[in-house]
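worker-03 picked up job from queue 'complexes'. Input manifest follows; two sequence lines, order preserved.
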Amino acid sequence: MERLISMNIFKFEFKYLYKQIIIWTISLSSIFIIFSAMFPAYHDNKDAVAQMFATYPPEVLKALGIDINIIFSFNGFYSFILTYILLLAVIMSLYLSISVFAREKKNKTSDFLLVKPISRQKIFLTKLAASGLSLIIINLLYLMISLTMFDFLNGINKNDFILIFSSLFIVEIIFFAMGIFLSIMLPKIKNIGNITTGVGFIFFIIGMVAGILDQEWLNYLTPFKYFDSSYILKHHALDSKYIILSIVIISYLLSFSYISYLKRDIDQVS
Amino acid sequence: MNIIKYELKRHLKSFIFWALGISLLSVYGMLEYSGINQTGVAMNELMAAFPKIVLVIFGMSGFDITELIGYYGVLFIYIEIMMAIFALNHGYNTTALEINDKTSEFIYTKPVARGYVTLMKMLASMFYIILFVLISYASVIIGIKLNNLNNNVENILLLFHFSLLLIGLLFFSLGSFFGAINEKKGTLIGNLILLFSYIVGIFYDIIEHNQIIRLLSPLKYFDLVKIINEKNISIIYIVITIVLILVMLTASNIIMKYKNLE
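worker-03 finished. Artifact:
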């Protein structure tokens, strides 16, 4: 362990990260809990909608892919609110990785860190370990809290619920890797908050617009659309095409960032 | 004048990207509308059956998407968010940028007053915000004309873009105010306000338009559904917004004047 990461840097990074862990866990969980509180009111609509659908020929409903029992289950509800939980989670992942990897670039302190007798390889891996660990901790806490809520609301089919959660987690990792990539590749980083919300919202907007315009090809452009929850609820699995795509993107971003972190010229303090 | 020229040149490149983005969104959106138009009626019936929360989550609550203006309203929410991000960034540029870049000693030692520098920077940014609004308006009109859609909606579009201008200036002044107070944490606060007001806006739609919640969410000060239905903008919120803008811009100018620069 000590050969790969430097404990001193790890401790230093984690001192900043633990506050973020607390803040993000609270905000993710509270938005989930507030939305879930609306589930009973949502569920009350079931009979009215079922009556209306009874007038439709079953073929139409089948063509539209609508199954009332699925839509009005807790998982169906969760798949709707996931859009916004995803937005928050993506901004969180970007912020976690950018704030760790761009700190030296933003404060113009790269030469202080890089003249330490620690290889760049070790620095990169340490930063990756510290921020990655925080991402995992936040997600575990969120999973625990949301599962408690799930049981409380008498949700059925825990497997699907966990599958939807894992799709959320994969998308988070994509953006986490993208944050690392951006922090290393951008020539100048003035402001972490701006980059984070900018990138997060732009991909979110592409996703929402893709939904409104109903264009399949736009889905490939934004990880927000990679794992359609209705697909998960129907097939009880993640779409393997997009799993492969995600793995390719993540490994490309990480390896490219790693190589360029080892080689790039560092910015000097003038 | 030199400062304005310099600032305009400096932010031109990023502005071109934004302008391309919004004009593509508007023109392409209008193109797609002609497709949706035909199948829309059945779709509307189906959507009316769904619980309100579903429509809110798709950002379609209250809009009649078979109508051109309702459809554009759904897209317009995202133009508003883009404007807010753009304006926050510009607000930050007017105050905190030079301090963080450590170039404050170059610009603030020029033989002009410090307040004048800030004012000129603000004017340059406001010019881009106005240009953003104009480009958005022009591109939606072009989109309508290109696809031969009926266009007796110009008045409502003007109201939409007036509210876009106010939202832009509001987030611009938020950005510059928080940037002036704290150049390190300032934009983070501004961005959190944007995220917060977007999410609060969803709750505002779900909980049947509660006025206290509305005050918390600047994005909902100019409720697009209300603009479509009533064909005017609520005067109270125009006044609130303008007062907020003026107070924050004056405050950030004064803070900058007395700020201790190193």
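worker-03 released lock.
The radius of gyration of chain B is 20 Å.
Chain B has a mean pLDDT of 85.
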